[in-house]
Amino acid sequence: QLRIAHGDGSFGRTLQQLAKVDVLVLDDWALAPLEEGARHDLLEVIDDRAGSRSTILTSQLPIEHWHGWINDPTLADAILDRLVHNAYRLTMKGESLRRKKAEEQAAS
């Protein structure tokens, strides 16, 4: 969404909309490599929301690997400081429910 907004000139408006959403969900966080421009965009979004709105991240990548995934020490420090400060962490353990369901369907 932000990449498109850069192209069509609506980046500022899109950033304002993301800042105003009560709960922003970033699903499958760190699933794919983060491009350089996206790092800066992410910092802007997170910085605009920090301390005023809720942000939920879901990820298969353990939190201790997020810094390396961002792949820029300075930006990683800034982003993660805003995300992790005052955060609640829920770590899910156990089998993948998708895998379990697929196995059950295959057996029936």
UniProtKB/TrEMBL annotation:
Single GO MF descriptor: ATP binding
Entries under InterPro entries matching the protein: IstB_ATP-bd, P-loop_NTPase
Residues covered by the IstB-like ATP-binding domain: 1-103
Gene3D superfamilies linked: P-loop containing nucleotide triphosphate hydrolases
Top-level taxon of the source organism: Bacteria
SUPFAM superfamilies assigned to the protein according to its UniProt record, in alphabetical order: P-loop containing nucleoside triphosphate hydrolases
Protein name per UniProt: IstB-like ATP-binding domain-containing protein
Organism of derivation: Lysobacter arseniciresistens ZS79
